[in-house]
Specification:
With 797 residues, the chain is mainly β. The protein has 6 helices and 45 strands. The strands form 9 sheets. It has a 22-stranded antiparallel beta barrel. Strands 8-15-16-11-12 form a 5-stranded mixed beta sheet. Strands 3-2-5-6 form a 4-stranded antiparallel beta sheet, with no helix packed on it.
Length: 797
């Protein structure tokens, strides 16, 4: 209530300002395949009869729309011989210029037969991507309630995509493990760009990626093009935008999840070179210093930095330097607390000291060799670190006073990678184009893990290896446009990994057919493969003589067949109805050599690692499902998305029994809606509201063996009963409220995101409590969490 009253006061104060503020929309229009600028293209604002603002691109494809009133717009781009582009939801604010980089696709139809209807939804940035792909940008990661500016949490709003744990941003795609996801940043494959990342996972508590540096990016959910490899579930292809090449702009933000500073502008206005920099520091540290209680004594400390320097050349070439990095640590100390005190994080019988970090720095060079040929090369260096120390303690059963304390765990994982990604695009004509390239990675792993076994009274080493490996991924893909309404793609991706000597050859194919102006049918197939996480392949077993063996080093790739059939129908000017059905068969999945329910498809979604014994590539899994989505884009000051999915995720372990996987929720639904209210004579103040509700099948779990759990001091499950039970269905309601105030060259924004606004206690799993009277207890997802922020954008000269 206090927040609503505060926003109302700010709103009332702003009613006294009536001056109309305008802004500039500018950018570049290029050919999608060759990246050459298109001169003479017509760019105009549509949908508002009172605005007759238009421009034509210059010889380099640049355009400028001046004196545009603040608001949201639709931009149409047209040029003879090319298909029209219709860019929805272009936001114009006072504090930042709006800069668009637009790609156009050449038309196959003869000029006399062209019938332009415009593209109502954004196509994938990758011209070879037809099926199961969503395009997103900074605006979408900010728009949805509960997304927290995080691309992973944003993606969980899509049909067939869900989260595995509210405290993490892992995403499960169509029943797959989160470890099946590939992250790509500026053409570089990155295992896990998240704070508090654990080996063998693709998520964490908070994303290192700052959404303020995002350009239009792609998210694939299956049967992705031949350019992508080493993934079985999906792909996040993140593009970083360039800074403003004419004006310096500053943004500052203070919020629960971070205190941020963002800078961008020209290095040289003459050459067009730019800089872009975003830095974030954990706000929890400030709260801790002020003794503000956030429900936990464990203060997560983290900071991250993203930057891009861009230098356009004079002969259709471009050079850029970019980087992303972050550092995080948390100390969860419970030994100095009373037995009855509740701690949000950690196990109640140990102290934990956890540290992670990652850094990526790279340089990119691209050149349009002519009007039909485009070359790009990216050279990068990546480094990651994670480590933890655990100390376990016991208390007196009567007094609760701490009795004993012993070291339990110590591990340090370091990985380095030097990468080269080279690609070549060639457009032979409007119908035929190809893209070929190779991704070469040189890995260096240094992994150490030691665990104390109380029952035996000695330490064992689970990792102690320094290994290098080379991964090479050549690919070739071809696109054939039979007409403007019918297109085909075919490709081949190869993967070789020297660490295990495995090689895979993966065919891919796709088809898109548009008919009756508003209908599109898509079909895709792909064979995909993925390496096993390094800490598993480098785990060791020590024999009685003290000799150790890297018993899983020879594990081969996990492979999968993807098949996707999709249908999309445009409804009116801004809405779509989309349906997809899919089937995925995974094979060569690592499982135990002895009869058990274990399979690698169930791993990759917790803050804990696991150390299996000898594994063999003999397991299988199947994911099958259907998804439907109705989405109304942001038009007439509101948007809405409703989706539902039904699916089944089954697998077989070495005991030969078919079971539901850990990530088989069976069904899921999302409902999102948001609306803007503009105030003031010149409509310079905007109140934004958004809600999201998620309702899905409950998590599956395995009953615990109480006696064995007490003996080992950790939860032990009945293997034969794997996933035989499930918790109650999951429900969460999020609400977002914000106020944006535009002044001359300045934009204020204040907002609050109420995550799990009703405080529903959703069950997460079972855990061992250490209490002999109640050894097995339930763990719950995060409860109600209000997330606030204040941001200011300032445009300089």
């Amino acid at each position: 209530m206090k927040i609503v009253l505060f926003l109302s006061c700010l709103l009332a104060f702003q009613q006294t300002f009536y001056s109309q503020i305008t802004q500039t929309i500018r950018g570049t229009v290029v050919d999608k395949e060759s990246q050459m600028g298109i001169p003479g293209a017509a760019v105009k604002i549509v949908g508002d009869s009172t605005l007759k603002i238009s421009a034509n691109t210059d010889i380099n494809g640049n355009f400028r729309l001046e004196k545009v009133p603040l608001g949201r717009y639709v931009i149409r781009i047209s040029f003879i011989g090319y298909q029209d582009r219709l860019i929805q939801n272009v936001i114009v604010d006072a504090g930042k210029e709006t800069i668009l980089n637009i790609e156009m696709e050449e038309s196959v139809t003869n000029l006399g037969e062209v019938e332009i209807t415009g593209t109502q939804k954004e196509d994938a940035n990758n011209e070879m991507g037809f099926v199961s792909v969503k395009v997103f940008d900074i605006e979408q990661t900010n728009r949805y309630a509960g997304s927290r500016g995080d691309p992973g949490r944003m993606a969980s709003n899509f049909a067939g995509v869900g989260g595995s744990d509210d405290s993490r941003n892992d995403i499960t795609i169509r029943g797959n493990s989160p470890m099946g996801l590939l992250w790509r940043i500026e053409g570089v494959d990155v295992p896990n760009p998240n704070h508090f990342a654990v080996a063998g996972t693709a998520g964490g508590a908070i994303s290192i990626l700052n959404n303020k540096v995002f350009g239009a990016s792609d998210f694939y959910m299956g049967a992705f093009p031949a350019e992508y490899g080493n993934a079985n579930a999906g792909v996040f292809d993140i593009k970083m935008r360039n800074g403003n090449n004419e004006k310096h702009e500053i943004s500052a933000q203070f919020g629960l999840l971070g205190t941020e500073l963002f800078l961008e502008g020209p290095i040289s206005k003459k050459s067009g070179s730019t800089y872009l920099l975003a830095y974030r520091y954990s706000t929890f540290v400030f709260f801790d210093a002020l003794n503000i209680n956030l429900g936990t004594n464990a203060t997560p400390k983290y900071q991250d930095l993203s930057f891009k320097l861009n230098f356009p050349g004079k002969k259709n070439n471009n050079f850029s330097l970019f980087g992303v990095g972050g550092y995080s640590d948390i100390d969860i100390i419970l030994s100095d607390k009373n037995r009855d005190e509740v701690e949000t994080y950690g196990d109640n019988n140990r102290d934990q000291y956890f540290t992670t970090g990652m850094g990526l720095i790279g340089m990119s060079y691209s050149k349009s060799l002519n009007e039909k040929t485009y070359f790009k090369g990216v050279l990068s260096y990546y480094k990651s670190y994670s480590g933890a120390i655990h100390t376990i303690f016991t208390r007196d059963s009567l007094t609760g006073v701490m009795d004993t304390m012993v070291d339990k765990l110590d591990y340090k994982y370091l990985s380095d990678k030097i990468s080269l990604n080279v690609s070549y695009n060639k457009k032979f004509n409007a119908s035929h184009s190809i893209k070929a390239g190779v991704i070469a990675d040189h890995w260096v792993h240094d992994m150490y893990d030691s665990l104390f076994i109380e029952q035996a009274g000695y330490w064992i080493r689970r990792n102690d290896a320094k290994e290098t490996g080379i991964m090479a991924q050549p690919y070739f893909q071809w696109k054939y446009k039979r007409t403007d309404h019918l297109s085909f793609t075919a490709g081949l991706h190869g993967t070789y990994y020297s660490l295990n000597g495995d090689f895979a050859l993966e065919p891919r194919a796709g088809m898109k057919y548009s008919f009756a102006k508003v209908n599109t049918l898509t079909l895709g197939y792909g064979l995909h493969s993925q390496v096993i996480p390094a800490y598993i392949t480098l785990s060791q077993i020590t024999d009685s003589a003290g000799k150790y063996y890297l018993h899983n080093k020879e594990l081969q790739f996990t492979n999968s067949h993807h098949a996707v059939l999709g249908y999309q129908r445009f409804i009116g000017k801004s809405a779509t109805l989309k349906a997809e059905c899919y089937y995925q068969h995974l094979f060569d999945v690592p499982i135990d050599t002895f009869p058990s329910s274990f399979s690698l498809v169930n791993q990759g979604s917790t803050f804990s690692r696991f150390f299996p014994g000898y594994l063999v590539n003999e397991g299988t899994a199947d994911n099958i499902g259907f998804e439907i989505t109705y989405e109304k884009g942001f038009a007439d000051k509101w948007y809405m998305m409703v989706n539902a999915s039904v699916y089944q995720a089954l697998y077989k372990g070495s005991d030969g029994k078919e079971r539901n996987s850990d990530f088989d929720g069976s069904w899921g639904t999302n409902f999102l809606i948001g609306k803007e209210f503009k105030f003031g004579k010149s409509k310079n103040t905007t109140l934004t509201t958004a809600i999201k509700s998620t309702y899905s099948g409950g998590k599956r779990f395995t009953p615990a063996d109480t006696a064995a759990s007490i003996f080992w001091g950790e939860i032990v499950e009945y293997d034969s009963l794997r996933n035989s039970q499930r918790f109650n269905d999951y429900f969460r309601f999020d609400f977002k409220l914000g106020l944006k105030i535009n002044r001359s060259k300045l934009t204020h924004e204040i907002g609050v995101d109420l995550v799990n606004a009703f405080g529903v206690e959703n069950e997460l799993g079972l855990t061992y409590s250490g209490d002999p009277q109640n050894p097995i207890i339930k763990e719950y997802q995060l409860g109600f969490m209000p997330i606030f922020y204040y941001r200011i954008d300032f445009r300089g000269k």
